[in-house]
Design a protein that fits this description.
single chain, 741 residues, alpha/beta, 6-stranded mixed beta sheet, 17 helices, 29 strands, 22% strand, globular
């Protein structure tokens, strides 16, 4: 039972918008089948020594002493040599989930920064992610890259995870569909995309040794299902395995995960690359790893001499080396990077790509609170106090290997201290899109003042003098670090409370990497969640504040009311693991365990439903400046195949976007809560649209005894405003079935 990719007119429009070659199209499973046959033919021509060229690569930046980037390399995440005799290109790799990575400005160039992954997921719009992926791929080609380390899809099991901003959602369907769209967009440029980090990579604390405990069924129904759907819909050329341990074994040395699940059960034909510094030894090759990446970060280069020695002594290892080469070649040929070489110096349409980033940021903003219609603000407002958040300078971005910056570099950099080769990854950077400037442009008659928020008394004084106070509150996140709690840092909660006490018409603009607590929520007039909004974030925020854009974003993650509501109220290792970007263990301290069997497959909103807990804001939540109604839910079922149909109506006076969300709420009398279908629609005032979504049977099933089982019986479904606000239950009988992938 495979979920097939769905292509829309929006995808074709996105391709044209970013100036792709007319022949460029997303990679399909048929492309992989043809490429595999060609790869087998090439493999027969390879010498013994040539079979150990594609098996390993360097980190292609001079952070590590002695690193020399070859002449045909590009400063970026990685380089794998090619084989010119056989017309096999070198692999030039860049981090890229949110845009072509900045790598500390070493290339002296810029790239379009998309909104954070979590922001893109808040659009609930696959076409938007396709357009963003197509833009990233186009820019990568122009810079000479042919492999992008994009496609982050780990489920948000813990809201404190420092890399939550890079990922998409807490739900496997939403995550899988969206990442698949982004991968299709990237690979339409004849670029290999990864999907990462495989798998169960739920925290940064002790990230190279935290050991995840989870039953196979629970993993298959949650995190692995997100990857499976993403692979089916996106057809990525590569999978990047994860740093963490799973059931006692490293993610890049995991026979069960890499061989049995990915390659055998799912039948995937691409190659597994390691994360940088994640290879424990040569045995990883026999356990499913195909390529050692960033080899300087490992204890040794295992996938050259040691691998060659194993293959010379054992036919099983020799066959594994052949399989490695076949898989890398299959990805190269399926994506066409040999026929359409990427060369540095290409033209980039920053204006067109900036518009894609702006559209995504507008779609991503979630209106969380709007007391007494405080928003949108009138453009005739006479006085506005803008406070905090570097709003006079730019918009916040997340840090780490995914850091992107535009031409000219960051508008501001706030050091968090430290030294060492990775210090450049660990600072707060702001994109050159100042909300203050955008606010002034949309309210030209207003007196707009700014205070940076360092001194509460100063901010309060300005708030008292203004009709409206807008407080920008920032929560910075970074790869390598987790959040200790859900508070706003630097005393910002106290700042917001004081400003709201001084001016009841206070609007809070949140730039966060994930869920936060809001102890001041009922004291402010409005709250919008802008996430990390990317290259044009300032304009997007102002557009929503003044009503030029009607917010249509919906939360892709649950905002807990307290840490006590989480499966693990205390983050594993938070009390003894010292922050370390590399994630390496201190001597004798590499035993850190995370029990995911607590929630199993009930991640996020499913856990809250199971426990009957009320979050601060539920998954799928989002307000609008207009009103919507959903009606007429009908479920048509044949066997285990089911389709949901419903109608969405704009019952208000303004045009806006709504997201229809269909949930499984019961199965054979047992309460469930699973998102089984969704669609975002744009509606004029008074307009209605009928929507039809196909329900993947795996969302109705349990994984057990080596396959999927849908028990026969009555299934209840509901159309929801969000995971907590559900309409009438529609019950339908569904036939039972058991099958294997």
């Amino acid at each position: 039972m495979k979920l097939r990719p769905v292509f829309s007119v929006g995808c074709a429009v996105a391709a044209l918008a970013v100036g792709l070659p007319a022949a460029a199209e997303p990679v399909t499973s048929a492309d992989f089948a043809k490429a595999e046959a060609r790869a087998v033919a090439t493999l027969k021509q390879m010498t013994v020594d040539e079979k150990y060229v594609l098996t390993h690569g360097i980190m292609a930046v001079p952070f590590i002493p002695g690193t020399v980037v070859p002449a045909d390399g590009v400063l970026g995440a990685g380089y794998v040599a090619g084989i010119p005799r056989l017309n096999i290109p070198a692999l030039t790799e860049s981090d890229a989930s949110l845009g072509v990575a900045w790598v500390g400005g070493l290339r002296h160039d810029g790239a379009t920064a998309l909104p954070s992954g979590l922001a893109q997921a808040a659009t609930w719009n696959p076409d938007t992610l396709y357009a963003g992926g197509a833009a990233i791929g186009a820019e990568a080609r122009a810079k000479g890259f042919n492999v992008l380390l994009a496609g982050g899809v780990n489920l948000a099991r813990d809201p404190r995870n420092g890399r939550t901003f890079e990922y998409l959602a807490e739900d496997p369907l939403l995550s899988g569909v969206l990442v698949g769209a982004a991968i299709r967009g990237i690979q339409s440029n004849h670029i290999i995309s990864t999907i990462k980090h495989f798998a169960l990579n739920g925290q940064e604390t002790g990230r190279k040794y935290v050991d995840v405990k989870i039953a196979e069924g629970a993993a298959r129904e949650s995190d692995l299902l997100a990857f499976q759907i993403g692979i089916e819909q996106g057809q990525p050329g590569s999978v990047m395995c994860s740093y963490n341990r799973i059931l006692g074994k490293q993610g890049c040395d995991q026979d069960w995960l890499l061989n049995k699940v990915l390659k055998q059960s799912w039948g995937w034909k691409g190659f597994v690359m390691s994360d940088w510094g994640a290879v424990p030894g040569v045995e990883a090759a026999i356990n499913g790893l195909d390529q050692q990446s960033g080899e300087q970060l490992d204890k040794a280069v295992f996938f050259t001499g040691p691998l060659k020695a194993k293959a010379a002594a054992d036919p099983a290892w020799a066959a594994r080396v052949d399989d490695i080469n076949k898989r890398v070649l299959t990805a190269i040929y399926a994506t066409g990077i040999d026929k359409f070489p990427a060369k540095p110096g290409g033209a980039i349409d920053f204006a067109a790509h900036g518009q894609i980033a702006l559209d995504a940021a507008k779609q991503a903003i979630v209106l969380l609170r709007n007391a007494n219609g405080a928003l949108p603000l009138a453009k005739s407002t006479k006085s506005i106090a803008v406070i905090g958040g570097y709003a006079d300078t730019g918009v916040l971005s997340g840090a780490g290997s995914s850091q992107v910056q535009g031409e000219g570099g960051p508008a501001a950099v706030r050091s968090v201290g430290g030294d060492g080769p990775f210090a450049a990854f660990m600072n707060q950077q702001y994109h050159r899109s100042a909300p203050l400037k955008a606010i002034k442009a949309l309210a030209p008659q207003a007196t707009v003042t700014f205070r940076d928020g360092r001194y509460i008394a100063d901010a309060v004084e300005k708030a008292k003098q203004a009709e409206v106070a807008i407080v920008f509150a920032n929560e910075w996140r970074a790869e390598g670090l987790d959040q200790p709690d859900l508070s706003l840092p630097d005393g910002q909660d106290a700042l917001i409370a004081a400003v709201a006490a001084a001016n009841p018409n206070t609007i809070v603009v949140l730039q966060t990497g994930g869920p936060i607590a809001m102890p001041w929520l009922d004291k402010v007039a409005g709250v919008i969640e802008a996430w990390y909004p990317g290259a044009r974030g300032g304009e997007a925020i102002a557009s929503v504040l003044f009503g030029d854009t009607n917010p249509g974003g919906r939360l892709p993650v649950t905002f807990p009311a307290s840490l006590d509501q989480l499966p693990r109220p205390k983050l594993d290792g938070a009390d003894w693991v010292e922050p370390n970007f590399a994630g390496d263990a201190a001597p004798g301290k590499d035993q850190l365990h995370a029990d995911y069997d607590i929630e199993g497959s009930d991640v996020g909103y499913r856990w809250f439903a199971r426990k009957g807990a009320k979050p601060l804001f539920p998954f799928g939540y989002g307000l609008s400046y207009t009103s919507f109604a959903g009606s007429g839910l009908a479920i048509a079922a044949k066997g285990v195949s089911a389709t949901a149909r419903f109608t969405l109506t704009n019952t208000g006076k303004l045009a806006g976007d709504d997201v229809g969300q269909v949930y499984l709420v019961s199965r054979k009398g047992e309460a469930k809560r699973r998102l089984v279908g969704f669609q975002r629609v744009s509606l004029a005032p008074g307009a209605s649209q009928q929507v039809s979504v196909t329900i993947d049977p795996r969302l109705l099933a349990d994984w057990k005894d080596g396959g999927w089982t849908v028990p026969a019986g009555d299934y209840g479904f509901a159309l929801g405003r969000n995971a907590d606000d559900l309409g009438p239950v529609v019950t339908v009988k569904i036939a039972g079935k058991t099958w294997k992938d």
